[in-house]
Write a structure and sequence with these properties.
Structural class: alpha/beta
Mean pLDDT: 90
Helix content: 40-55%
Order of helices and strands: HHEHEHHEHHE
Strand content: 5-15%
Length: 227
Protein backbone atom coordinates (compact mmCIF):
# COMPACT_ATOMS: atom_id res chain seq x y z
CA UNK A 1 0.00 0.00 0.00
CA UNK A 2 2.93 2.31 0.68
CA UNK A 3 4.47 1.75 -2.75
CA UNK A 4 1.30 1.54 -4.84
CA UNK A 5 1.00 0.28 -8.38
CA UNK A 6 -0.17 -3.01 -9.86
CA UNK A 7 3.20 -4.79 -9.80
CA UNK A 8 4.06 -3.95 -6.21
CA UNK A 9 1.59 -6.56 -5.02
CA UNK A 10 2.64 -9.80 -6.63
CA UNK A 11 0.35 -11.75 -4.35
CA UNK A 12 -0.89 -11.68 -0.80
CA UNK A 13 -0.64 -14.79 1.33
CA UNK A 14 -2.84 -14.88 4.46
CA UNK A 15 -4.11 -17.69 6.64
CA UNK A 16 -7.63 -16.29 6.35
CA UNK A 17 -9.16 -15.27 3.03
CA UNK A 18 -11.17 -12.49 4.67
CA UNK A 19 -7.98 -10.76 5.82
CA UNK A 20 -6.53 -10.87 2.33
CA UNK A 21 -9.69 -9.48 0.80
CA UNK A 22 -9.71 -6.66 3.36
CA UNK A 23 -6.19 -5.63 2.31
CA UNK A 24 -7.20 -5.83 -1.34
CA UNK A 25 -10.16 -3.55 -0.59
CA UNK A 26 -7.88 -1.00 1.11
CA UNK A 27 -5.46 -0.94 -1.82
CA UNK A 28 -8.28 -0.68 -4.36
CA UNK A 29 -9.90 2.16 -2.41
CA UNK A 30 -6.58 4.03 -2.47
CA UNK A 31 -6.46 3.77 -6.26
CA UNK A 32 -4.14 0.77 -6.56
CA UNK A 33 -4.69 -2.60 -8.14
CA UNK A 34 -4.56 -5.76 -6.04
CA UNK A 35 -5.56 -9.40 -6.27
CA UNK A 36 -5.39 -11.94 -3.44
CA UNK A 37 -4.05 -15.40 -4.20
CA UNK A 38 -4.17 -18.41 -1.92
CA UNK A 39 -1.49 -21.09 -1.68
CA UNK A 40 0.18 -23.30 0.91
CA UNK A 41 3.84 -22.27 0.82
CA UNK A 42 4.89 -25.75 1.95
CA UNK A 43 3.42 -27.19 -1.28
CA UNK A 44 5.74 -26.45 -4.22
CA UNK A 45 3.18 -27.37 -6.88
CA UNK A 46 0.63 -24.99 -5.34
CA UNK A 47 3.18 -22.20 -5.10
CA UNK A 48 4.33 -22.70 -8.69
CA UNK A 49 0.74 -22.57 -9.95
CA UNK A 50 0.11 -19.42 -7.95
CA UNK A 51 3.21 -17.65 -9.31
CA UNK A 52 2.29 -18.56 -12.86
CA UNK A 53 -1.21 -17.13 -12.36
CA UNK A 54 0.17 -13.96 -10.79
CA UNK A 55 2.52 -13.46 -13.73
CA UNK A 56 -0.32 -13.86 -16.22
CA UNK A 57 -2.79 -11.67 -14.35
CA UNK A 58 -0.37 -8.84 -13.53
CA UNK A 59 1.93 -9.06 -16.53
CA UNK A 60 4.97 -10.29 -14.63
CA UNK A 61 6.51 -10.42 -11.17
CA UNK A 62 8.82 -7.67 -9.96
CA UNK A 63 8.96 -8.20 -6.20
CA UNK A 64 8.73 -11.23 -3.93
CA UNK A 65 8.40 -10.82 -0.17
CA UNK A 66 8.74 -14.04 1.82
CA UNK A 67 6.91 -13.44 5.08
CA UNK A 68 5.19 -16.74 5.87
CA UNK A 69 6.42 -18.47 8.98
CA UNK A 70 5.75 -20.68 11.97
CA UNK A 71 7.45 -20.50 15.37
CA UNK A 72 6.71 -22.97 18.16
CA UNK A 73 8.42 -21.97 21.40
CA UNK A 74 9.80 -25.12 23.08
CA UNK A 75 13.05 -26.25 24.64
CA UNK A 76 15.02 -28.20 22.04
CA UNK A 77 14.97 -31.45 24.05
CA UNK A 78 11.18 -31.24 24.20
CA UNK A 79 10.77 -30.98 20.43
CA UNK A 80 10.37 -33.87 18.02
CA UNK A 81 10.38 -34.52 14.28
CA UNK A 82 6.84 -33.19 13.89
CA UNK A 83 7.94 -29.84 15.34
CA UNK A 84 11.04 -29.79 13.15
CA UNK A 85 9.20 -30.54 9.94
CA UNK A 86 6.35 -28.08 10.47
CA UNK A 87 8.66 -25.14 11.16
CA UNK A 88 11.29 -25.98 8.55
CA UNK A 89 8.59 -26.63 5.93
CA UNK A 90 6.99 -23.21 6.53
CA UNK A 91 10.08 -21.10 7.14
CA UNK A 92 12.80 -22.60 4.94
CA UNK A 93 10.98 -24.66 2.32
CA UNK A 94 8.37 -21.91 2.05
CA UNK A 95 11.09 -19.44 1.02
CA UNK A 96 12.74 -22.01 -1.26
CA UNK A 97 9.46 -22.79 -3.01
CA UNK A 98 8.50 -19.16 -3.51
CA UNK A 99 11.95 -18.09 -4.69
CA UNK A 100 12.31 -21.01 -7.11
CA UNK A 101 8.83 -20.54 -8.59
CA UNK A 102 9.13 -16.75 -8.89
CA UNK A 103 12.79 -16.48 -9.97
CA UNK A 104 12.30 -16.91 -13.74
CA UNK A 105 9.67 -14.18 -13.80
CA UNK A 106 11.66 -11.84 -11.54
CA UNK A 107 14.89 -12.25 -13.51
CA UNK A 108 13.03 -11.56 -16.74
CA UNK A 109 12.19 -8.08 -15.43
CA UNK A 110 15.93 -7.20 -15.13
CA UNK A 111 15.22 -5.15 -12.01
CA UNK A 112 13.70 -7.58 -9.53
CA UNK A 113 13.61 -7.67 -5.76
CA UNK A 114 13.48 -10.58 -3.32
CA UNK A 115 13.01 -9.73 0.36
CA UNK A 116 12.76 -12.35 3.10
CA UNK A 117 11.62 -11.67 6.65
CA UNK A 118 13.21 -13.65 9.47
CA UNK A 119 13.55 -13.32 13.24
CA UNK A 120 16.71 -12.07 14.93
CA UNK A 121 16.89 -15.45 16.70
CA UNK A 122 18.35 -16.74 13.42
CA UNK A 123 21.32 -14.39 13.85
CA UNK A 124 22.04 -14.54 17.58
CA UNK A 125 20.15 -17.62 18.81
CA UNK A 126 17.31 -17.67 21.31
CA UNK A 127 16.26 -20.16 23.95
CA UNK A 128 13.10 -22.01 22.96
CA UNK A 129 13.36 -21.09 19.29
CA UNK A 130 16.14 -23.38 18.11
CA UNK A 131 14.19 -24.96 15.25
CA UNK A 132 12.77 -21.79 13.72
CA UNK A 133 16.15 -20.10 14.20
CA UNK A 134 17.83 -22.92 12.27
CA UNK A 135 15.25 -22.70 9.49
CA UNK A 136 15.55 -18.92 9.24
CA UNK A 137 19.34 -19.22 9.26
CA UNK A 138 18.96 -21.30 6.12
CA UNK A 139 16.81 -18.56 4.60
CA UNK A 140 19.57 -16.02 5.25
CA UNK A 141 22.08 -18.26 3.49
CA UNK A 142 19.66 -18.70 0.59
CA UNK A 143 19.24 -14.93 0.16
CA UNK A 144 22.99 -14.30 0.22
CA UNK A 145 23.53 -17.01 -2.39
CA UNK A 146 20.71 -15.73 -4.61
CA UNK A 147 22.13 -12.21 -4.33
CA UNK A 148 25.37 -13.46 -5.88
CA UNK A 149 23.74 -15.74 -8.43
CA UNK A 150 20.95 -13.44 -9.59
CA UNK A 151 22.90 -10.21 -9.55
CA UNK A 152 23.72 -10.70 -13.23
CA UNK A 153 20.03 -10.04 -13.94
CA UNK A 154 20.12 -6.94 -11.68
CA UNK A 155 17.99 -8.79 -9.14
CA UNK A 156 18.61 -7.97 -5.48
CA UNK A 157 18.01 -10.35 -2.58
CA UNK A 158 17.97 -9.14 1.01
CA UNK A 159 16.77 -10.11 4.48
CA UNK A 160 14.91 -8.03 7.06
CA UNK A 161 15.57 -9.53 10.49
CA UNK A 162 12.96 -8.73 13.12
CA UNK A 163 12.59 -8.54 16.84
CA UNK A 164 9.29 -9.48 18.44
CA UNK A 165 6.50 -7.82 16.47
CA UNK A 166 3.01 -7.37 17.91
CA UNK A 167 0.38 -8.22 15.33
CA UNK A 168 -3.27 -9.24 15.42
CA UNK A 169 -2.07 -12.85 15.43
CA UNK A 170 0.11 -12.44 18.53
CA UNK A 171 -0.81 -14.28 21.72
CA UNK A 172 -1.97 -11.14 23.53
CA UNK A 173 -2.42 -12.84 26.88
CA UNK A 174 1.13 -14.25 26.79
CA UNK A 175 2.58 -10.90 25.67
CA UNK A 176 0.80 -8.98 28.40
CA UNK A 177 1.90 -11.48 31.04
CA UNK A 178 5.54 -11.29 29.91
CA UNK A 179 5.76 -7.74 28.55
CA UNK A 180 7.97 -6.29 31.28
CA UNK A 181 10.48 -9.13 30.99
CA UNK A 182 10.43 -9.05 27.19
CA UNK A 183 10.92 -5.30 26.83
CA UNK A 184 14.01 -5.40 29.07
CA UNK A 185 15.78 -7.18 26.19
CA UNK A 186 15.19 -4.17 23.92
CA UNK A 187 17.21 -0.96 24.36
CA UNK A 188 14.18 1.00 23.09
CA UNK A 189 12.06 -0.66 25.79
CA UNK A 190 9.15 -1.67 23.60
CA UNK A 191 8.14 -4.40 21.20
CA UNK A 192 7.82 -3.80 17.47
CA UNK A 193 4.74 -2.98 15.42
CA UNK A 194 4.00 -3.75 11.76
CA UNK A 195 4.48 -0.08 10.90
CA UNK A 196 8.05 -0.31 12.21
CA UNK A 197 8.81 -2.99 9.61
CA UNK A 198 6.96 -1.87 6.49
CA UNK A 199 9.13 1.16 5.57
CA UNK A 200 12.30 -0.94 5.42
CA UNK A 201 10.65 -3.59 3.26
CA UNK A 202 9.25 -0.92 0.95
CA UNK A 203 12.64 0.78 0.65
CA UNK A 204 14.33 -2.48 -0.35
CA UNK A 205 11.71 -2.87 -3.08
CA UNK A 206 12.31 0.58 -4.58
CA UNK A 207 14.85 1.80 -7.17
CA UNK A 208 16.60 3.65 -4.34
CA UNK A 209 17.81 0.28 -3.00
CA UNK A 210 19.13 -1.00 -6.32
CA UNK A 211 22.71 -1.21 -4.94
CA UNK A 212 21.77 -3.06 -1.74
CA UNK A 213 21.92 -6.83 -2.03
CA UNK A 214 22.93 -9.82 0.05
CA UNK A 215 22.35 -7.87 3.26
CA UNK A 216 20.64 -8.68 6.56
CA UNK A 217 19.05 -5.57 8.04
CA UNK A 218 17.77 -5.76 11.59
CA UNK A 219 14.56 -3.98 12.51
CA UNK A 220 14.53 -5.10 16.09
CA UNK A 221 14.60 -2.20 18.52
CA UNK A 222 18.22 -3.05 19.23
CA UNK A 223 17.53 -6.64 20.30
CA UNK A 224 20.56 -7.71 18.31
CA UNK A 225 23.51 -5.57 17.31
CA UNK A 226 25.37 -7.61 14.75
CA UNK A 227 28.24 -6.04 12.85
Amino acid sequence: MAAGGPHHLDGVRFQRAAEAEAVVAQITAAGGRAIAYGADVTDYAAVKAMMEKVAVDLGGIDILVNNAGLALRKRFVETGPEDWHSQIDACLYGALHCCHAAAPFIEARKNGRIISLVGDSSRVGESGLSIVAAARGGTIALMKSLAREMGRSWTTANVVSLGLIETQHSDKAWLDANREKLTRAYPLRRLGLPEDVAPTVVHLATPGASWITGQVISVSGGFSMVG
